[in-house]
Amino acid sequence: MVRLFTDDLSISYGEQLIVKNLSVTIPDKKITTIIGSNGCGKSTLLKAITRIIPHQSGLVLLDGKNISKENTKSLAKKMAILPQTPDSTSGLTVSELVSYGRFPYQNGFGRLTKKDYEVVEWALEVTGTADYKHRPVDALSGGQRQRVWIAMALAQETEIIFLDEPTTYLDMAHQLEILELLQKLNHEQERTIIMVLHDLNQAARFADYIIALKDGEIVKAGTCEEVITQDVLRQIFEIDAVIGQDPRTNKPMCITYNLLKGEKQHEKTHIPVYAASSSSY
């Protein structure tokens, strides 16, 4: 089943075209990861699909409806996004921040109902953040803060959650903690998860579907076995990768790699540098 897809989507910043006539399908109730080099359009695509930024042409369709014509609150009940750099939380407690996820359900007075409080408590419990719900968000560690932001997205009660590099600035243990939480939400609650990741092995380990972008266009989309290959990684990152198998998950993993540009540059400069040094004797 497909609920969300784009059709010939083009996105620009000023006169610079970032995403070009992109048609992409997001599998429902699965984890989709978008990979690619810096500046290839990963975050731009997420922002356009969630209507944070406008697109110049094409369509984003959710449940057969053009999202650009959807009511803001109605759309916020269907999809939530955790940006790469969330807004400042100065002065907010954990429970206060999570309660912001209830905005789409509030009336004109902006007061939380009994239902809202129940959902906030549930989101705190699910993400393991209930023990510090009265603490200031700014006093938490990076991993704890990220869990709180995810709790806020859950409090929004959407079936689709977008995350832009959710593991950035976290150590290895906290990265794994966040990704396992998202996987748990997908498996137990059937949330559709779409996220941008830089770590190829994390993408292969946790994603059901991977979209590889280069210069705003899809190089390859499919399962991790179809995307995490030497040929695809060569195209999108210009690296010569050695692909093996993760002994715990049996998923493909990048064991090591060389920069193709670096090898070419080394070949060009090696002889002149040697000749110059030898001539000085």
Report on the structure:
The chain is an alpha/beta fold and 281 residues long. It folds into two domains: 2-78 and 158-240, Rossmann fold; 86-157, no CATH class. The protein contains ten helices and 13 strands. The strands form three sheets. It has a six-stranded mixed beta sheet with strand order 7-8-9-4-10-11, sandwiched between helices. Strands 1, 2, 3, 5 and 6 form a five-stranded antiparallel beta sheet that branches. A two-stranded antiparallel ribbon has the order 12-13. Helix 6 links the parallel strand 8 (160-164) and strand 9 (192-196). The N and C termini lie far apart (72 Å). 35% of the residues are buried. Residues 264-281 have low confidence and may be disordered. One of its GO terms (cellular component) is plasma membrane.
Strand content: 25-35%
* Name of the CATH superfamily of the largest domain: P-loop containing nucleotide triphosphate hydrolases
Summing up helix and strand content along with how strands pair, one would put the structural category as alpha/beta
Binned, the helix content reads 25-40%
The gross shape turns out to be globular
The CATH architecture of the largest domain is 3-Layer(aba) Sandwich
Low-confidence stretches: 264-281
- Per CATH, the class of the largest domain reads Alpha Beta
- Termini separation: 72 Å
